[in-house]
Design a protein that fits this description.
Largest sheet: 9 strands, antiparallel
Distance between the termini: 40 Å
Strand content: 25-35%
Number of helices: 12
Radius of gyration: 25 Å
Oligomer: single chain
């Protein structure tokens, strides 16, 4: 059985991502011919640690290691914001007026991602980060208006790379993307140095790029729980298998600024230079480490519904978003990437419901809650919340009493707009709000709807998890119908938001 890599969500020095804890020996079992799976570890690489795993001969493994390290050190001298002799710091200190090819490549990438994820991604927050660092040094909360003005000035600057000039109205800072880009470039150099390798994995500070020959099984990567960190890594969010892909994490828990009694996340919103009040962590799988790094950074600063909507529109990206209290919100293709044996044991439920057409000049779209609860009436899984007003969502009195008033932040991270009428479809994978598989037993699917200037309705469908069922209940006024089809094992995608 292939060993498992552990990603630990502890942020370090120059990078926002994580220190890896790998359950690997220095040299694993031999394979056919002269090839072996070789593991190499180095500390103090980009301010964190590097792990290289390669299925190749010892000679090619050494060449790959050397090539990767040389490329990392070369690019660190370009993009580091800690080394005063780096090209980036020379530019920021007014000691350099021309951009190297490597710097132009990075600036171009940043501009592309700023266009792709407007208001969520930026490499222009150097002056903003300097202001926050000074605030922490002097233990004085920064002026929010000043921070916002710096961020907006950078965001709306009309800087054009084509003129080759150094920007005057903002400073570059590449921590949102540089590590991923360096991993990709180092990976390319390692592969060229080891042309006979069958598989290669490069992990720097928990961001990972993996490649393997067609038909080869990928090494599984186990993801640590960012809300339950310990060196034993007993708390896991599951394992994923990368198919010539990369994975990156961005989170707020492990690293922060301490100003007085207040903690501020080190990850800032591009639109105003301020940390989110209810930040999410993001684990992203994408085609390259550059993409995964940039997207993870952006998603961790976005509203959860907007973040998931963006991921669903990009077929080469999957993500797992984790709220402050540990609730998991996966993209539709996330769970199939998980451990395949575990996935087979999960139930899969198709759920459909419809809101009726009501002809009324005073019609208001309803607020809807859809959830699974156990025999003790504990909410196991919040499936869908439609409408984000606490005042009117509380009219769904059953859901509000059992869940909403205890965790009102769910409305901030989960609620979506309601359509006027029509059918909604979604699926449930058999996991609870925290990503754990639910035990077999008796449960209920419950839908509740309330409408301003209208009525209130609740419908329940009891079911036994582990036994197939297909059942439809018709509503009276606010809900047209709800249908549950439960089957096992898992089929298709899980946790798809309403259409």
């Amino acid at each position: 059985m292939a060993p498992t890599l552990f990603i630990n969500t502890v942020a370090i020095s120059v990078n926002k991502i994580l220190i890896p804890f790998l359950s690997l020996g220095a040299l694993l079992h031999g394979v056919a011919g002269n090839a072996e799976v070789v593991d190499v570890h180095h500390d103090n690489v980009l301010g964190t640690s590097m792990h290289l795993r390669i299925d190749a001969s010892n000679q090619e493994a050494k060449l790959a290691e050397q090539a990767a390290l040389e490329e990392i050190r070369r690019l660190e001298k370009v993009y580091s914001n800690y080394d005063s002799t780096s090209e980036l710091m020379q530019i920021r200190n007014g000691l350099r007026s021309q951009l190297s090819t490597d710097m132009r490549t990075m600036v171009s990438l940043c501009q592309q991602w700023q266009e792709e994820l407007p208001m969520a991604f930026s490499c222009r927050l150097g002056q903003v980060i300097d202001a926050w660092n000074q605030a922490e040094k002097h233990q004085q909360r920064p002026d929010r208006k000043v921070i916002r003005a710096l961020a907006r000035k950078a965001l709306y600057s009309e800087y054009a790379l084509s003129n080759g000039l150094i920007p005057s109205d903002f400073s570059w800072e590449f921590s949102a993307i540089a590590k991923g880009y360096i991993i990709d470039q180092a990976m390319a150099q390692a592969r060229m140095a080891a042309p006979s390798a069958k598989a290669l994995l490069l992990d720097i500070g928990g961001d990972i790029r993996q490649w393997q020959e067609d038909g080869s099984e990928a090494w599984p990567i186990r993801i640590a729980d960012p809300n339950q960190l310990d060196d034993s890594q007993q708390h896991s969010l599951g394992s994923v298998h990368l198919n010539n892909q990369a994975i990156a994490y961005s989170g707020h828990k492990a690293r922060h600024r301490q100003i007085g009694r207040r903690q501020f996340s080190h990850i800032l919103q591009a639109r105003d230079g301020w940390p989110r009040d209810f930040p999410n962590s993001a684990v992203v799988i994408a085609s390259t480490a550059t993409e995964a790094d940039a997207i993870a950074t952006a998603l961790s600063t976005m509203d959860l519904d907007k973040a998931l909507d963006w991921v669903e529109q990009n077929s080469t990206v999957e993500a797992l978003l984790i709220s402050e209290d540990g609730r998991q919100f996966p993209s539709s293709g996330w769970h199939p990437l998980n451990n395949k044996n575990a996935a087979r044991n999960l139930a899969s439920a198709n759920i459909r419901f419809a809101l009726p057409k009501i002809r009324s000049g005073n019609y208001r779209k309803p607020y809807v809650a859809l959830w699974i609860e156990d025999e003790q009436r504990n909410v196991v899984k919040n499936l869908l919340l439609l409408g984000d007003s606490e005042r009117w969502m509380s009219e769904n009195s059953v859901w509000w009493r059992r869940q909403g008033r205890k965790t009102p932040a769910l409305l901030d991270v989960m609620a979506r707009p309601t359509r006027r009428s029509g059918e909604y479809q979604l699926q449930w994978s058999g996991r609870n709000d925290f990503g754990k598989s639910v035990a077999t037993g008796q449960y209920q699917l419950i839908i509740e709807a309330a409408r301003e200037h209208g009525g209130h309705e609740k419908i329940s469908i009891p079911f036994e998890l582990g036994k197939p069922i297909k059942h439809t209940e018709k509503g009276q006024k606010e809900i047209q119908f709800i249908e549950l089809e439960l089957r096992s094992p898992l089929v298709g995608k899980a946790d798809i938001a309403a259409n």
